Amino acid sequence: MVPRIAMLSFSNFGSARHPESKKVRAAVAQINELRPDFEIDGEMQADTAVNTELLKAQYPFSTLTRAANVLIFPNLASANASYKLLVQIGGAEVIIPILLGMKHAVHFIQRGSTVEDVVNLVTLAAVDAQARSKET
Predict the structure, then answer these.
(1) Beta pairing, strands 4-8 & 70-72
(2) Domain range spanning residue 68?
(3) What is the pLDDT along the chain (136 residues), one digit of tens a residue?
(4) Residues 16, 80: one domain?
């Protein structure tokens, strides 16, 4: 699966001039500079990110070829609220929250996790350990 990454905000491509949306645009620019091979765009609202027709009709300049399959939230509060709603209302399957950007591997399990959650976490931790062992 090729990731199509949407950096989420309450604004669509500058529709609201605000320090938070500006921060998301700056992050997209930095990622494009560091990894021009990534298909990433933003800042955009969640409905824009997951609806190809809306994205192409309203924002034909977007670099996303189709609806995003990876959503990056602007902060922990919005990410947590969104994934909990997707599970409870939409019936989504959540693999496990993932913490990125740490120098060393960090894996955590939430209170109330199922056996499937534990298995998913162990699987991710094993893949992470393999990847990190190849780096050293």
Answers:
(1) parallel
(2) 1-90
(3) 899 999 999 999 999 999 999 999 999 999 999 999 999 999 999 999 999 999 999 999 999 999 999 999 998 899 889 888 888 898 877 776 677 677 777 888 888 888 988 898 899 889 888 888 887 6
(4) yes
Number of domains in the chain: 2
Q: Tell me, yes or no, if the pTM score tops 0.90.
A: no
Those residues with Cβ within 8 angstroms of residue 90's Cβ, 6 or more apart along the chain or in another chain = none
Q: Are residue 33 and residue 86 in the same domain, yes or no?
A: yes
- Please state, in angstroms and rounded to a whole number, the distance separating the CA atoms of residues 60 and 55: 7
Same domain, 70 and 10: yes
